[in-house]
Amino acid sequence: MNSFKVFAVGNLARNPDLVAKSDTLYTRFCLVGNDYAGRDEEGAPREVVTSLWFVAFGAMGEAVAKNCRKGDQLIVEARVRANNWTDKQGEKQYDHSFILESFRFGAPGPAKRDEFDALRGDSPEEA
Fold it and tell me: Do residues 32 and 5 make contact, with C-beta atoms less than 8 angstroms apart?
């Protein structure tokens, strides 16, 4: 049983990285989200940017790498895996990995919208 799951909605910070290491194929990608964080001294709204790195293995990783571009929105479900180690100085280090279990496409980003427009024969100058 997986103790912790993460559900996240965010935009890709950059194009996903498809990696082949030995017999393992995986994709790393970073989702970024902006959250309202109150107002500053002048009354202007503030935002806090949160970014999380995810890993997708096998066919799911290939699908993300092939179909997703920087700026695209993804809706993901991932399990949390603890990564604990001892560094060279003997200090215990703690980290977490987010392993993709499922995803859905959200709104396309600017690069994907340009690709769609090119396929339809639309150009931004015509609009």
Answer: no
Three-state secondary structure string covering 37-65: EEECCCCCEEEEEEEEEEEEEHHHHHHHH
**CB burial class (10 A; 0-12, 13-18, 19+) of residue 109?**
middle
Tokens 């950059």 found at: 14
H or E, element range at 120: helix 110-120
pTM score above 0.90: no
Q: Which amino acid is present at 90? A: G
Interstrand relation of 45-57 and 92-105 (parallel, antiparallel or unpaired): parallel
pLDDT band at 120 (very low <50, low <70, confident <90, very high): confident
